[in-house]
Every structure is written in structure tokens, then in C-alpha cells.
Design a protein that fits this description.
The protein is of the alpha/beta class and 421 residues long. The protein is 35% helix and 21% strand. Strands 18-19-1-20 form a four-stranded mixed beta sheet. It has a four-stranded mixed beta sheet with strand order 3-4-6-5, covered by helices on one side. A hairpin with a 2-residue loop joins strand 16 and strand 17.
């Protein structure tokens, strides 16, 4: 494992650039695939190595689905929860597809049973077969035809909104094939509803009509758009960069203020803490001012933003409160424990009561702090963000994991004068 030393002692202003949005790209690329397109505006000009690993994983999977039915294919989803869940449903709704899914041990430990049960219930009667390994491989045989199936998926979605998004994209595929409405029925509560809204927003951009009823979403029509939409910058990555730019006096480009991505909640959260936003040019944003109080945020609303906000909390006056934090245990790592370890390494304190986590910055900052990324991209980038915000050097174990969502993260930090060794 690589060990990286982050030295933020010589910061300078720079304009920073986030990658294309991973969450938006995953949804848009599937819808482009269903529309017969292989790429989208803004994606073809990006070097492959600059794309988030999850996006590259999804692209490889969609290429496999486009091949004529025949030999068994192997789909390696690495550590990508969203690519695995999305590709699984797309494979199950691709006539005659046969393949084996693999991933990391951690991906195998994450919860997928509700999605598997939903697919079996809906498509099992017309021939879908799913055979689970321990945990890999997961073997899938898709039916040649789904017309005999009741046009409905039912899923419990308390653990992840990705189940509902995956099935809704599958309902879009089946609508295009059969030209009959397909529904997704949501049983129980829904965690991270903003990500389901993001899926619905992209379906609307690609011309799908979705009827909303309590506990049910139904794809009822489709009109191809005159032009395929472009991809925005990634709001999850913008969270790190806006805070880094605030500390270094710079700004961030490729900002889409009309995005439906839930992590745009960062702007509202930091405004409530006393910061201001300014836009010196279209698509460019910066944070200004001094924070007056801690932050408050919910894992139901913006779970991927919580590690970033935990880093910010360590340089704020007063306590910060993160609520609905149980969902963090089911990510690429146990992010709840990862956040607490980051706070402890910096000398701060954390108190967990039920679903609420209260964070307090240390009375005096350490001369140096050391963190293990736990092979989790968001924990690694949050630790580096804290180093920049505080001016305290960091020793980070396992920095490579940022490639999952932001391969160019370390290059962007270097643009602000951060020294990496």
C-alpha cells in the first residue's frame, strides 16, 4: 500500500476542475444505451483514464450487453455498487444474455438481496435464473422474452435507493421492447430519495414519461429527445474542491447549479454555517467569508457528502451534527467508523447516539495527523480536504482509491500548491 504525505503549507489560488458526474453519468449512459447511443456530449472528449472507475466499469458492462446473444460473458464490477446493481437489471432485461458477475469481497458483503428478489419475482416466471456464489460469481440467465411476465417490479428500498433506480431503468428497457407500461412498486421506506429523483430527472431528459403514484412509479411512454443531454460536473467531487478553493482563495469550474444531484446540498449547508457563494463567471463558483457555527446534514438527504462535512467540521466553531448516519455503514467501507477514525486522528471528538453523530473540533490542532483510507475514495479525499482546510500535514495510507470517483484529485490539489510525496 502506498503512503502519501500531504503538505498544505504553500497554498495558492487556482481554478479547480471536477470530473464529470459519476452519479449522472451512470444513469445517462444506461439511457443512452437504451436509445442506441454509445456516448454522450462531454464524455467523448474526456481521456479514459480521467473517468471515474465506476463509470469505466459501467461502460465495459454496457459494451458486453450490446454483443449478440451467445457465449457466456464475465462482468467484473470491482468495488462498484451502483454499476453492479444497474448492470444486473440491464442484463436481466437483455434477451438471451448469459453472464457471470464478479466484484471485490467488500462489494459481495454489501446488501443486494432485495434487488435479486425483485428480479426473480418479476422475471423468474418467464425464465430468468440467478445463481449466487459465496459471494461470487453471480450467474445470470436472462429470458428471451418477458411478455408473459406481470409488468411490475416490487422491491424493499430501505437499504438503498439504488434498487429502485436500477429497476426503474430496467422498466424503461422493458417499455421500449414491449411497448406496455412497467411499474416499480416501493415497499417500506426509501433511503436517499434524492438519488431516485436524479434517476427520474434523467429519464425525463431522455424522453420517458413516468407516472407517479404513492409507492409506485410507472413508465408509460417515450418520445426520443431531439438532442441527447450533456453531462455536468460531479457534485460529490465539487464538495472537496469548493472547500479547498475556499481555503486557498480559488474557485471551481464546471458547476451546474440546475443539477438534481443530492450533494448540491453542500451550498445550502455551508450557507447556514455562515459562508457565502459567489459566481465570478458562468459555471464558476467559489465560497467566501468565515464560518460562524458548525454544520448540520442528513445521511438520508446526501450520504456521500457526510465524510466531506466531517472534515469541514474539524475547522468550525461549535459542534456539528450529522443525522441518519446508519446508511454510512453499508458503503465501500463502514464510513461511519471511518469518519470517527478521521476525527479522532485529528484530535477532535465524536459522540454517536442512535442515528445522530455529533462532532467537535479539537481545542488546538495537531502538528500532523495520520489516516488509513480503508480503501474508500471518499474517506481518502475527505482526509486530504481536512489537511488543506486546517493547514496540518497529513500522512495518508492507500491514496490510490480516489480513482473510483476522481482519478485527477491529487493533480487538482497540486494546482493549489499542495506538495505530495
Amino acid at each position: 500500500m502506498t503512503v502519501l504525505r500531504v503538505d498544505p503549507s504553500a497554498l495558492q489560488a487556482a481554478q479547480l476542475t471536477p470530473p464529470l458526474s459519476k452519479s449522472d453519468a451512470q444513469r445517462a449512459l444506461v439511457l443512452a444505451h437504451l436509445s442506441g447511443a454509445r456516448t454522450l456530449e462531454g464524455l467523448e472528449s474526456e481521456p479514459v483514464e480521467s473517468l471515474p472507475a465506476d463509470v469505466r466499469t459501467l461502460l465495459r458492462g454496457l459494451d458486453a450487453l450490446r454483443l449478440p446473444p451467445g457465449p457466456r460473458r464475465e462482468l467484473d464490477c470491482a468495488d462498484g455498487g451502483a454499476p453492479f446493481r444497474i448492470l444486473l437489471t440491464q442484463a436481466a432485461t437483455t434477451p438471451g444474455f448469459r453472464g457471470g458477475f464478479r466484484g471485490t469481497p467488500r462489494l459481495g458483503e454489501r446488501p443486494h438481496a432485495p434487488l435479486l428478489e425483485a428480479l426473480r419475482e418479476a422475471l423468474g416466471p418467464v425464465g430468468l435464473r440467478l445463481e449466487e456464489g459465496r459471494p461470487w460469481p453471480l450467474e445470470l440467465w436472462a429470458p428471451q422474452d418477458s411478455v408473459g411476465a406481470p409488468p411490475r417490479f416490487r422491491v424493499r428500498s430501505e437499504q438503498s435507493s439504488q434498487y429502485a433506480s436500477s429497476l426503474l431503468l430496467g422498466a424503461a428497457a422493458l417499455y421500449l421492447r414491449e411497448r406496455r407500461p412497467w411499474s416499480v412498486e416501493l415497499e417500506g421506506g426509501l433511503t436517499s430519495p434524492g438519488y431516485l429523483e436524479l434517476t427520474l430527472a434523467w429519464m425525463a431528459r431522455f424522453g420517458f414519461d413516468v407516472r407517479r403514484e404513492p409507492g409506485r412509479l410507472t413508465v408509460t411512454g417515450h418520445t426520443p429527445p431531439a438532442q441527447l443531454p450533456a453531462l455536468p460536473g460531479d457534485w460529490s467531487s465539487l464538495g472537496y474542491l469548493l472547500l479547498v478553493a475556499w481555503r486557498s482563495g480559488g474557485s471551481v469550474e464546471r458547476v451546474d447549479l440546475a443539477s438534481a444531484q443530492p450533494d448540491q446540498a453542500l451550498l445550502e449547508i455551508v450557507r447556514e454555517a455562515g459562508l457565502r457563494t459567489a459566481s465570478p463567471a458562468p459555471g464558476v463558483l467559489r465560497l467566501e467569508g468565515e464560518a460562524l457555527r458548525g454544520v448540520r446534514a442528513s445521511g438520508t438527504r446526501c450520504p456521500d457528502l457526510l465524510p466531506t462535512l466531517a472534515a469541514l467540521a474539524m475547522v468550525l466553531p461549535g459542534p456539528s451534527v450529522l443525522s441518519d448516519v446508519g446508511v454510512l455503514r453499508l458503503k465501500e467501507s463502514d464510513r461511519l467508523e471511518g469518519i470517527r477514525a478521521l476525527v479522532s486522528a485529528f484530535g477532535g471528538s465524536s459522540a454517536l447516539e442512535g442515528e445522530g453523530l455529533t462532532l467537535q473540533a479539537p481545542a488546538s490542532r495537531p502538528a500532523h495527523f495520520e489516516v488509513d483510507s480503508r480503501e474508500d475514495h471518499r474517506l481518502a479525499m475527505s482526509a486530504a480536504t481536512l489537511s488543506v482546510l486546517s493547514g496540518v500535514p497529513l500522512t495518508l495510507h492507500g491514496p490510490e482509491c480516489v480513482a473510483k470517483s476522481f482519478p485527477g484529485f491529487w493533480t487538482q490539489l497540486q494546482r493549489t500548491g499542495v506538495r505530495l510525496t
